[in-house]
Amino acid sequence: MAPLPPALAAATTVPVFGAALAGYACEETRAHGARVWVASGGALAEVACEGRGLALSDGTLASQALAGGTLAVEGMLTALPFGCGVLELVGADPDGVEKLLALTPLLALAVEGVQAREARRGTGRVAETVESLMRRLGGSLDLAVVLGGTAQTAALALGFGRAFVALFSEFDAEGARTGEVFTYGFDTEFAGSIGVGPVTFETLVRRGEAIRFERGRDEGSPLAHGLAELAPEAAVIAPLSARGRPLGLLYVDTRTPGAAASEDDARLVLALAEQASLAIDNARLYAIETRKREAAEAMREAGAALAGSLHLPETLSGALEHAARLFQADAAGVYELQPGGRVLKITSALGLSSEYVLRSRAKVGAGVTGRAAAERAAAYAHDLPREGPPAGSRYTRQLLAAGTYPYRGVLALPLLTRAGVFGVLTLYWAAPLPLDEDDFALARLFAAQASLAIENARLYEEELRREREAAVLLGVGRLLGEDQSDRALAEAARLATLALNAGRGLIALLGPDGEVSRSATYNLHPPSPEDLGHLRAQLGRGPRPLTRRVCLPLAGSALIVPLIGGPGGGEVLGFLYADDPGTEPPSDRVLGLARAVADQMALTLTRERLLSALEREEARYRQLAEGAHDLILSADAGGGVTYANPAARRLLEPLTGPLVGRALLSLPTPATRGALAAAWDAAFTRASGGRAEIQVGDFRLEGRLSAVGAEGGEEERGALLIARDLSELQTLAEEIQRRGQALEAATSRQTELRTYLTLFTQAQEEERRRISRELHDDTAQVLIATSRRVARLARSLEGTGRERAQDILTDLDAAIESVRRFARNLRPSVLDDLGLLPALEWLATQATTPARLEVSGQERRLPPAVELTVFRLVQEALNNVDKHARAQSAAVRITFLPGGVRVAVKDDGQGFSPEQAEARAQAGHLGLLGLRERVALAGGELGVDSAPGQGTTLTFELPA
Predict the structure, then answer these.
(1) What DSSP assignment string belongs to 719-736?
(2) Are residues 18 and 66 in the same domain?
(3) Most buried among 387, 424, 849, 950, using CB within 10 Å?
(4) Which residues form the Histidine kinase domain (predicted)?
(5) How far is it, in rounded angstroms, from Cα 305 to Cα 315?
(6) In the sheet where 952-959 sits, what is the strand order?
(7) 208, 247 in Cβ contact below 8 A?
(8) Closest CA to 333 of 420, 415, 438
């Protein structure tokens, strides 16, 4: 924005200002004429005019422009409002109007200043001093010139010798502090800022009054204590304010002994401060506008530069350079969010030391940079070593603790993309943070612009990456699809390794046994079978990073991904391995690319294997067709035979001649051709095809016609006929019937034999019961009676006779016990009297091999026939253990089931193999066969589990 012409800035009255403005406007816009209106008493009044054509104006357009506050145009008239005035032009150039439009804020301030000066205009020192200040400033919009000129004018007007102007920079509950101070007459420069206490601030700012100080009068007051460093004899302090906003203060003093500050001095300084406030505010507005324009230009340049690069490293470097230049930062860095979303690392830096870049890490949520990433909003520290939040990096905390941290002001701006937080742009200043609210707004705007450029660069690089990956996938697929030799496999390993940005690579294919059958490497010495097996053990369901401990030698990090495919889609065909000397683990993008490359390889390998399998299947089906006994003929869409298997040629060609080339529908006899024709039509209309019985010569055939290629074009359609000679089937059916009758007769004989055996077994048991009862009731009783008689006889004898009688008595007792044991073995009474479990316990105690009985399930009595069968089976099993097992112990386990009983007899003996069992059976040892037959007769099944040296377990289950 250009400054106002000196004539406008120096105008002392509204008419003078209007005349100067009308002449300036005609010159700048090349207008025919110009008229200046100023509102006074609620109505517009003409204050000046210049040029021709003013008769076109009657003030209406000017009133509309002032009321609307915007530019108004009607024909050749243009009305431009500024504050309480309107500039009306006749035939103005539009470009000139645009230039004046940019000056309207300054014109409004200038006319208000002129009106204020007119209102305060008087005679004497005040008017002269104000006029002198205005002449000195000359309409300048340079803030330093305005502030310095104000201080000099005030000092010279009062004759005090010293003055300064200071603008407020901070406000708090206790007052305010100033920023830079502009002085006149002081021997030394001011260091730091000036504090304004609450009482002084109340008087100056809130009441708008000037403060007079005289040492003799105010000695010992708080004001004297505050001015002790300046040591004035007399001083006047006046507030600077404009548009109801406090700007700062004007201070004038003298060290001349006995000097005093009068009320006129205070009014003079106050009037001077009021006039200076307008100039200061104009300069501030101009500086703000200039700064905005410069910032907009800088932002435009930065945006154009960032948008011109689509490579992420260049974009980041450009963002750092423009940010550092725009905000005058001493250093800058881009922290990029790492995988996992918890740590940020510097990936691009400007002005930062190498050690700082390498060692500095920021945790999300901690420190200035971490907070910006977590909150997705700008974060800052005005003076980090003194007041800032704890640093998010251990290295930064160490520097702060040692007092060697090189920066004080820190500003962190989040870089946000559609994918989320990309990272943080952090700016560093060696001094405290020098930015104000406008700078913060500009910084946020710059961060948004940089984020957009980063998003574009990432999208561009992502598109390039996808193109490269697609090219790699296409190359690998084409390479392995055309050739799967060792050379092609090695080239595929090279392509995959380069695509993954790895240093070395390996492709290994697995054989049917799951071991590595073939491998190819790139930039890698062929690993040993042990190394390949070790890598094979690291496979999972997808790509996974490998630590240095499980990588191949000389690798710092690696990845491995299985090649999963096959006909079922879940077979591991091999694996792809790639490594790198660095220890940085592969990123998610690299792992995703590895998965895509592996899937492409697996797809190609699977397709080739399926094609090979299809060829083998075609050969096998052709072999089956060639060796089939059924007649197989194929025909094209016109019904011509295109193929006939040997069975068809052997059976039909003696009757019909060569089959290939003949019409299929003409082969049957005339009586059966209609049936074949109907089947032909049905083959193309029904999914199940068509069936027909036809006659060819002396052969009666049953055939089935199926459509082939029915979904293709008409020229691709055809049919397949599979026929069978019914005469041969009839012969086969008769043979099956004959054999079925023989089988039925054998089954009947077997049933009769089983019935006979059952009856025989029952009769045997009954006979045993009868003999056991007779031995127990008759023979045993006779022997007992005889024993008692011999015992009485022995008691009546003496000497040798008595001894002989005792021997006879002993023999009788042994015979009685033998008869009893024999009776029990034939049919133990405990089974009939007490039941199965006591009988089995008795059997366990009678066995030579130590045995035990184990019972599970709900105990109950079983039908007598079942209990007898279980008893006999266990008895025979224990006898076999005693005779053949050479066991140390045996166990009888009986389990009561809801529908029956399961019994297992187990020993820890020598066991036997199936061959040994067969040899014993051939040698006449039929114990197992007898047990199996008896279990079968009872409706159960016997299981034998034995092996040499591992004992034997016999298990059978009987229904109850």
Answers:
(1) EEEEEEEHHHHHHHHHHH
(2) yes
(3) 424
(4) 872-960
(5) 9
(6) 851-856, 890-897, 900-907, 952-959, 941-946
(7) no
(8) 415
Shared domain for 841 and 948, answered yes or no, is yes
Task: Report the candidate in 407, 409, 416, 406 with the shortest Cα–Cα distance to residue 439.
Answer: 409
Same domain, 129 and 278: yes
Are 131 and 107 part of one and the same domain? Answer: no
Cα 748 to chain centroid, rounded: 72
Residues 71 and 126 in one domain: no
- Does 801 map to a domain? no
- Partner residues linked to 164 by β-bridges: 183, 251
Residue 468, domain member (yes or no):
no
- Domain hosting 715: range is 625-719
CB 256 within 8 A of CB 270: no
445 vs 455: CA distance, rounded Å: 15
CA angle 117, 121, 124 (to 5 degrees): 130
Comparing CA positions, the residue from 775, 807, 814 lying closest to residue 791 is 807
Whether the pTM exceeds 0.90: the reply is no
Q: b/e map of 430-459 (b: 16 or more CB within 10 Å)?
A: eeebebeeebeebbeebbebbbbbbbbbbe
| Residue 785 belongs to a domain | no
Structure tokens at 748: 């009947």
Return d(Cα 380, Cα 293) in angstroms, integer.
25
SS3 790: helix
CA max distance for the chain: 187
Q: Which two tokens stand for residue 16?
A: 């003078």
Q: How many Å from the N-terminal Cα to the C-terminal Cα in the chain?
A: 114
Domain count, the chain: 6
Please identify, among 236, 264, 290, the residue that sits at the C-terminal boundary of a domain.
290
Domain-ending residue, one of 92, 118, 144: 118
Residue whose structure tokens are 């952090």: 426
> Which residues does residue 239 pair with via DSSP β-bridges, in sequence order?
249
603 shares a domain with 492: yes
Q: Which CATH number is 83's domain given?
A: 3.30.450.40
Q: Contact, 250 vs 160, CB < 8 A?
A: no
What is the residue-wise DSSP string for 846-904? HSSS-EEEEEES------HHHHHHHHHHHHHHHHHIIIII--S-EEEEEEEETTEEEEE
- Going by C-alpha positions, the residue among 845, 833, 954, 825 that lies closest to residue 902 is 954
The domain that holds 924 is classified in CATH as 3.30.565.10
- What are the structure tokens assigned to 747, written together? 């089954």
Domain-embedded: residue 933: yes
- 281-323 pLDDT, tens per residue? 887 777 777 766 666 666 666 666 666 667 777 878 888 888 8
333 forms beta bridges with 349, 426
**Do 178 and 166 share a domain, yes or no?**
yes
Asked if residue 672 lies in contact with residue 726, where contact means CB atoms within 8 angstroms, the answer is no
- Assess whether 149 and 265 both reside in one domain: yes
Locate 416 and state its tokens: 């946000």
> The tokens of 676 are what?
């074949």
Element (H, E) at 556: none
Query: Residue 459 corresponds to which amino acid?
Result: L
pLDDT tens digit string along 40-90?
767 788 888 998 888 888 888 888 888 888 888 888 899 999 888 999 999
Nearest to 415 by CA among 353, 457, 360: 457
| Contacts of residue 173, Cβ cutoff 8 Å, sequence gap at least 6 | none
Confidence band of 905 (pLDDT split at 50, 70, 90): very high
Least confident residue range of 539-548, 597-606, 627-636, 822-831: 822-831
Residue indicated by tokens 């027909």 = 692
Q: Nearest CA to 160 among 263, 252, 251? A: 252
